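Q: What residues go here?
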């Protein structure tokens, strides 16, 4: 049979089409996720190489911050207070734009609220507000948290 691209005689079959070795080497690449050969023009090039559309749909998502493709195994889930929802970010963006709250165990956007407390731990404002309510109820002391160091204010 003849190659569907150049017309050269060939016995190679890729995806039910006859493709000669020259055309196969020029036009087909293995998917970095599943390893199967696919037409390079129908694949998406990401930082790890070419990925087929099936793998891209089932195993990857875009980073909320930079827009790069992230494999589901490498996703970090963070809380974006700007939009009030969970977002998926890559490692680089998470390290650059988010802080891990040591109380609730979530990554929280830097601009929207984390602060280092007197015990040296990072806490999000939501956890700090919960602590404030707890402290107010127990001892009558209120703790301010909005972009200030923690301090006691007697009420």
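A:
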């Amino acid at each position: 049979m003849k190659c569907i691209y150049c017309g050269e005689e060939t016995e190679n079959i890729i995806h039910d089409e006859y493709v000669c070795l020259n055309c196969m080497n020029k036009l087909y690449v293995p998917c970095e996720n599943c390893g199967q050969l696919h037409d390079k023009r129908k694949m998406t090039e990401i930082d790890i190489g070419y990925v087929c559309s099936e793998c891209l749909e089932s195993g990857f998502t875009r980073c909320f911050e930079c827009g790069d493709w992230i494999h589901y195994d490498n996703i970090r889930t963070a809380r974006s207070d700007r939009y009030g929802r969970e977002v998926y970010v890559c490692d680089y963006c998470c390290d650059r734009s988010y802080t891990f709250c040591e109380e609730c165990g979530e990554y929280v956007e830097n601009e929207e609220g984390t602060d280092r407390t007197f015990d040296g731990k990072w806490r999000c404002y939501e956890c700090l507000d919960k602590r404030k309510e707890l402290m107010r109820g127990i001892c009558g002391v209120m703790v301010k948290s909005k972009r200030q160091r923690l301090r006691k204010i007697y009420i």
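A: Context that may help when evaluating the design: Residues 145-155 have pLDDT under 50 and may be disordered. Residues 101 and 123 are 4 Å apart (CA to CA).
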